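Something for you to look into today, if you have time. Could you write out one complete protein record for me, on any chain you like? The space below this message is yours for that.
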Amino acid sequence: MSSLASPDEVFEHHGMLWKRKAGAESSFEQLATARSFLLQTNEDALWNPWLRDDRASELDAAMDVMREWTRAEPDFRQWTAEETQRWLDEGDRARAAARAEEEARWERGRALFDTDLFASRRGLLEQESIHEHILEELEEFRSGRRFPGMASDRRQKEVTELEERLATCDAHLVRLRAVVPDPEVVVSERGQLPSDRRYSNLLTYKFNREFKVRDLRRQLPELRAELKAATDKGERKELREKVSREQSEPDYWLAVRPLSADEMCSECPTPLTGHGWVSHGLHGARPCPAWPGWAARMKQAREMFFEMIERNQRAQTPPAPPKPEPLAVVPSGLPLGEILAQLSELQAQFPDAVVKRGRANRWELWPKD
């Protein structure tokens, strides 16, 4: 550590002049380190807010150093509370005005919304993604990187099929680009441009990520404590697997670097890198749920799933009990002697039966209970 400077000695750090307060015990090197740490942590915490909790003691120590120093510019003057509040109020007014202008633009955009054009734009995005995926597959098959041991005739068959799919995709792209010359000016039903929706989706993704990480950071210590306390072999195995799964989740979310709005999908709160046609693992790339072709496939899959559930429920439902039938029936309109003869026979056959009047004035014999 260097020797301490006198209170009158002035130092420069990132364009600002500083001098020690009387009685301070920190060096300029400590000030520079503390200030850089505070600036970097505040910047990092914009994307990873939990860093402020993780580095709380270090932030406090850095602030203790900062309090031992003061600005040294000759004309420097600390703002008063009133000046600070005035600056904050001006910022609030500027943001409110920008928001009002934005909402007015959205309101004007509502009149420009075209359902078919909006759907065509989504179809264009889907076909562009398919086109890129087919090109990647074609290059891998042609170079031999995909399935190196594949027989040449079968490889050529795969290449031919991919070329046919590519031609079909190109035809779709030509048609859709004629309808949607500039995808970035197509407004949504709310009058918002794709750039507006990307920014909104970035905020949603950012907050979802923060919630997931905080929730997983809370759950993992609890799961580890349960695992440590568990004595049953089966329970321990289940908890170990759960801890392993849960551990991979925060690792994935923490690895996500800060994103800009331009890197987001305009149709859902997902980074553009999260969209594709080959999914590996829980967080692999997936098609956008708003793309019309994929949405239709997902709708069909859901309908098939619910139909299967309904069939299973019907198969498991016990059949309705059979409708009760009388033991015997004596029709009306017979001679009295024949009726008595039939009743005599039936009495011998069903001694405990009771007689009830049935449909068409016939006599029905039913069990007593």
Observations:
- The mean pLDDT is 90.
